[in-house]
Amino acid sequence: MLGSIDYTSGMIRNDTDIHKKLTQRLVAWYKKNKRDLPWRHTNDPYAIWISEIMLQQTRVDTVIPFYERFLKTFPSVEALAQSPLSSVLKAWENLGYYSRARNLHAAARVLVERFGCKIPDDPHELLKLPGIGTYTAGAIASIAFGRAVPAVDGNVRRILCRVFAIHESTGDPEVLKALESMARTLVPEKNPGDFNSAIMDLGATLCRPKAPLCPSCPLESLCQARLLGLENELPVVEKRGKIPHRYGVCAMVFDDKARLLVVQRPSTGLLASLWKLPGGFSLNKKDMAGDLVREVNKELGIDIRVGEKIGSVDHVYTHFRLTLFAYEALWIKDSPSGAPIICHGCQDFRWASAKDLETLAFSRVDRMILSHLP
To answer: Domain 2-227 class?
Structure first.
């Protein structure tokens, strides 16, 4: 039964002795092998908060340069809160999952208004901030403030499922709740941040999803999955269904000064508040030009004449795969729909020079399509 942590052969049980050995070995391993990461050279809760948000769903080596630039641009809660969202999104450009940047900006304003610019040390208070869930609250509270609370992410769940040979699916809410409870019993009162960082590092470097490096693991002799030869079968993860493939169309429309027409996305939804070329999703792959005319009219209230296809790019989001096609297009100013341009499905529009395009915040896929500019 999951509640008693007495699995399969019973070689490992949920008792104080096992927990003590696990904690001691893990922390000792961490002190010798911890990764040299910039946010581990500071006790500043603000810097640790920024790092934890950036590390959500993003690899460490990708985060490091963004983290360092972000702190130079926004060195404090006050600086972040006082900056316009457009500046924050520009600093976040190409890091992906832009809702994190919007939530950081919103949370900074909450911290100024309600917490006197201080990051709270209570995980329950941290959970009230936009963009902070249970894992992030635990990581900040333990690493920045020494609170003995767990920080349970995919790495931690994988390690616990292997060490205790848990055969139930990690997609089961009851299993997730039990893993959270188990992690809570493991976190030591002394240096809990080191313990949470250690288990994260172990999952990132040795106890990997595939081909774990068991001979190098400090928990090998405690790991029931290893003893049973199940390290490659656990944890049990529900297979994701095939994600749909969607097609997008966008228009490259220039004015008589060679400036490009760009629009700002709505303030909510996919890639909110970032800039892009006018267009949208195509419902009919055989008539993408017709779909582009419809989408631009819906977005800006104007009619266009679609010309040659300029190029296409592919990108994978969490829930779908996208192929985006770009076309040359001409604004038909004397069309029945008439001018001027009016934002219907966007926040704003502008005619952007090459210099403007460098300063505006675009998503990765939109930057890729802009590389096809004639």
So the answer is: mainly alpha
Q: Is 295 considered catalytic here?
A: no
- pLDDT band at residue 6 using 50, 70 and 90 as cut-offs: very low
The C-alpha atoms of residue 74 and residue 79 are separated, in whole angstroms, by: 5
Q: How confident is the model over 104-126, as pLDDT tens digits?
A: 999 999 999 999 999 999 999 99
Residue-wise pLDDT tens digits, 71-100: 999 999 999 999 999 999 999 999 999 999
Closest CA to 279 of 336, 327, 332, 335: 327
Q: What is the CATH number assigned to the segment(s) 245-370?
A: 3.90.79.10
Check: CB of residue 363 under 8 Å from CB of residue 318.
no
Residues 267/292, Cβ–Cβ less than 8 Å = no
How large is the average pLDDT for residues 325-331?
Answer: 97
* 277 to 132, 327, 366: CA distances (angstroms): 32, 10, 8
Q: At what angle do helices 154-163 and 173-186 cross, to 10 degrees?
A: 80
Domain definitions of the chain by residue range: 2-227, 245-370
Contact 65, 166 (CB under 8 A): no
Beta carbons within 8 Å of 132's beta carbon, 6+ residues apart: 53, 103, 107, 126, 140
What pLDDT is stored for residue 338 in this prediction? 57
Helix (H, G, I), strand (E, B) or coil at 355: helix
- Among the listed residues 52, 93, 231, 299, the single catalytic one is 52
Q: Under 8 Å CB-to-CB from 241, ≥6 apart: which residues? A: none
The dihedral through the CA atoms of 101, 102, 107, 113 has a sign that is: positive
Residue matched to tokens 């972040």: 80
